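Reposting from the mailing list since nobody answered there.

I have sequence plus structure tokens for a pair of proteins and want to know whether others read the tokens the same way I do. The first protein:
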Amino acid sequence: MTAQAHRSSAENSTTLKAKAIRHADFLLLLTLFAFFRFGSVLFFRPGGYTRDYSDLIFYQSRASWQDFGLLPYRDYWSEYPPLFAWFSLWVDALARRIPLWEDERLWYAAIFGLCMALAETVTLVCLYWLARRLHGEGALRVAWIYACLFLPVYFLGGWYDALPVATIFLGLAILVRWPGLLGALFAGAVTGVGGLLKLVPLATLAVVPLAIPRWPARLAAGIVALGIVVAGYAWAYLHGPLMTLTSIRSLTDRTGWATLYAWANGYTRLGKVLGGVFDPNATIAQYEAIFPERLFTVGWLLLGGLALVLLWRRRAAPHPPQTIVAFAALTYTVLLLAYTAWNPQYALYLLPFIALLWPNARGVGYALALTALTLVEHPIYHNLIGPDYAPIYRRLIDVDYRSLFLAIIVARTVVLLALALDLLTLLWPAWRRLRRLSPLLAAAAVLGIVLLLPQFGRAYVAGRLATSEARPLARFVNALPGDLPVMAQQLALGRQLRPLLDDPARLHLFGGRPGRIDPLPQLATGPFLYIRSGNDDPALVEAVEQQYGCPERQPLDRWELWFCNGMAAPLVARFAEGIELVAVTAPPRAADPLQVTLFWRATAPIPRDYTVFVHVVDATGAMAGQWDQQPAAGESPTTGWQPGALVVDEYQIPLNARGTVAPYRLLAGLYDAPTGERLAVAETARPVSDGRLEIATLEAR
């Protein structure tokens, strides 16, 4: 080796050492970042308790079909672009080489997640490099703000958006670093690969006129990017023309969800792509659009195009890095405002821009607002609250949970508009007076959701009450006098039932180990209700029977209610034909809808099918609401009642309180539908008029 070569090698070593020292803090952060991401993939369950494995289960399910020789774009169509569909096949093929763990998803999830973590690491490196151009020595703040964000970690192992996000920021870094033909070609290639994963990265081409000064290079970037996407689809078409065309149609024919556009068209549920994937003629749209959603999409895109033209004409390319990054951020914000569908993971496309452009309290505020709204929507709303309950449960929920979904959509849209406005003030300093408006809009949107948190809580409780096996038990106990103790042995029953009671403290568990009856003797100083389960300790059951006496017993679903220590079984009224109204649960105040539960019992077989009516009348006797049905919405006709068994009869009564005068009286009874003749009330302590029994009094709403 020559002396000159030795000097060159020494200089390179010195340069690398100097760079390592200069970026030492970032290298430490990068090491911890990568280790944390990789560790979270291996040791956290994607989606947590509320949605185990998230979309990952669909990715793996589709990929596993290759065991039958079925491949995407050849044997079935896919809503995912070709490169991701093939990537998922590769992950599944690699995972199948490893012996199965107890959960068969482990190795697919681990390999998939490690790839996502690697993509996240690429994103962080690109962010740091771009931040050096934008903020100089303050670049490290950008890196640690992004590293500390929760949402990218949450979506890391369950969705694949980390891959296209990495291509977006790698493409931006290349455009800023090499604003010439070579940079245009490399950026176009990266963008094209991103477009084959998800079409969204193709929007990066919008900044090419601002970053690249010459038209041949600009055209080269677009040609390379679009050429790669076309080549990918062409390859798929050669192997499966029909399914490839259907896959493309799944992108163009799908309707929106979780946006104001979809809501205006009457679609208020979580979105998905419909149709059997083996059917090339499958219907993709989820609803018939009332107005042309794509017209609004085109309008937003035209506004984005106008902003590009104005920036392009303002000065010659290349523009400063901050302008390029800010316009890219504006492009993706406008794209999300324009698109008729929203998935929670779309927030991942904006969070890196927020950290990069506002590495301060302003940016952290935007990031937290977007994160909070994303998590409130999914998993809190879509998983903890609903709304996809079966019809049998939906009629039991007395909260308008779909209005909460609309509130989330409006709040998220306001935050996106605030971001777009703030980005415009970065691009056009003359508008800087509007900078104060943007955070105020975002804060107002989040505050609106915070104020609705009690409603979210009510919706959750109503949904759990509607779907719980212990619902009839809870409704019956709530109808009993509030000072009456309720006893049970089973811990699982106690944890399920207690939160559903108006007074949770009235429920007491006894036992806990074989032969232990405490604390029942200390609590049972008077009448009490014992809820007997089938797996109760027989010795304790015998002790309760012998020591306290429980002569009256009534079956309710899979439990048996024992009325002990001198407690008489409740009774509201006796009707003719041996029908008894045992208990009534109704709210203290009028509500729309009004949720009422009636508990019936037959003392003998009933010869006819009677219809139950429930009327709500105001202080003047005017009707404010009514509902007629065979018991339990027709599922428990009176001729099928078993003597002695309790029948749970639920009602959701639409209430029209306009022009009425409180208080309201709740009246109920039965009648023979063919003749209209009401069943007589034989015995009750409550007021009766014209066969209508007054079962409750309600105050004003």
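The second protein, same order (residues first, tokens after):
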Amino acid sequence: MAIITFLLFTLGVAVLSYYLTGKTEETEEGYFLGGRSLTAGVIAGSLLLTNLSTEQIVGLNGAAYKEGILVMCWETLAAIAMVVTALFLLPRYLKGGITTVPQFLEVRYDTMTKTIATVLFLSGYVVVLLPIVLYSGSLAIVTMFDLPTAMGVSQTTALWICVWGIGLIGSVYAIFGGLKAVAISDTINAIGLLIGGILILYFGLSHIGDGSVMNGVSNLYKHAPERFNSIGDENASVPFSTIFTGMMLVQLFYWGTNQAIIQRALAAKNLKEGQKGLLLAAFFKILGPLILVVPGMIAYYLFNAELSVDDADQAYPMLVRTVLPITLVGFFAAVLFGAILSSFNSALNSSVTMFGLDIYKEHFNKDASDETVVKYGKRFGIMLAVFSMFIAPLIANAPDGLFGYLQEVNGCYSIPILTIIIVGYLTKWVPALAAKIAIILGAVLYSVSQFVLKPYVFGDDNYPHFLHVMAILFVMNVVIMLVIGKLQPRAKAFVLNYTEQVDISPYKHAKLVGGIICVVVILSYVYFS
């Protein structure tokens, strides 16, 4: 029954996405940005599900199992970053009519800066994001629903089957459907994910409250009130002090400059729809801990006597098996599959976009037609997808703590890219030389800091948190860029020209809504402190 429900829901999403997408135009704008036609609801849904995957659904609830509510910062602080993106970055992106973030770097600095940033982005997706999404997602599906037993195969075989299943379906969406197919399927799955997540919350609280949700909340708090403190000390995975340093930089990079995310907002039919979409998604982000943190705390209530914190990532799958009625297992499996699929196909679609526009057209065929750019972008996407599907199962042989390690690796490119984008928009005279030095120096120094000095010179216990290191390097690189701009300024001040590709009239309530969202985030910290 569960398998039938899973197949029907998944097939229904695919058919509906195809029907609503229709014939995708083989033009750069039609394929890469869905014809710049996305509305607020589609943008918000796609943003949320692109962000949500098993790394968070399982991983963040696992972190909550270990440490309690303090890990909510990964969700709630994202809302502030999305407000900043809606009010500051998105108007400038749409004014310039860009398709990819590296394209802005070419306009602001030069072609080489754009190419360096594109290579860094693609390296991050190829080496980190795509294989990890496939592996962690497949592992969650295999473990949660005991596929080896159901299919009569070994754990390794089940993992390979799941990896290739997710990879092939995600590739069809991303490579052959373009952004619009990805965004529509994301929106449908986002609704299912919210429903499924709320059901786990409801049944979990009812389970520990003897049929009453309110009693469940009361019992959860009485069991371990100290776990409801949002202020993490210096020994926590996210000390409270990091909120004011690298945490906000990571959030701003992810929501404001990460191509896989911001591409949804770039595809808005106008600035008003883009801002409304980002702000709507920001509101739901504030509610994110209900699905991504509280279930982990419920699992701690139920399983802390039998499940050690070292195995915390098993907490959420165990909770699902314990509290969810068997009739809903297939639906939840399909929703979880959609979340995994979304992260994979979104990153793949963004990789295709950046390769086609920023590598192929720039360095191989400057006169290529739109159809040619899309064609070679698809070929690159197919190659990338196959590579990721072969690599993903091999991650099972990697050392423990791989995901946290790879999250740390992302700092090699996230902060340097964020630095040159922020300085690029806020200054007029800083030259391309400064951007090249900052992006290369930022990547090299961060790598040396985290992978040489920290483990081999100072030791993990005597070294600053990696989020603090990110903030220090961000400030240092900004200062370096400003000094170079003072000593060797551009020959002509940079001016961002309005391309008139979309209407950039802002949403009239954007600042008010954004302000309310920020106040709610702050109050949530005050309440849980």
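Reply #1 (J.P.):
I read it the same way you do. The longest helix spans residues 155-208.
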